[in-house]
Amino acid sequence: MTRRPPVPTEIRRQGTHGVRIFWDDGHQSEYTNDYLRNHCPCAVCRERPRRTLPIVGNKGGPLYAKEIGVVGRYAVSVKWSDGHDSGIYGYQTLRGLCPCEECRPKGPPGSSKRTAETLGKFESETS
To answer: Which pTM does this prediction carry?
Structure first.
């Protein structure tokens, strides 16, 4: 029998700082807004080379989640203050992106292990 992946029980915007997610297995994840926005899983952002092109639309103001909505039983959508709103963050993708010490992959800093695992989870969620 396979174990069901964790799902959020509560999602809170933390003002202009970030987003906190409480999971049904007791874990808490806190993401900065820049971190989540830079890991947007939409097609346009996935095609954009990481850290080489600026995020379009942000006029130098603070970046924050204006709205967070539930998408079915598997994901959330985020409307960002820079106007971007096409990313759908699957629950498994969000959990895979958790930056806490417990969730961080073991390996050298900057290794691509997390990116490959996260994108694989995203692709399996959307297949």
So the answer is: 0.74
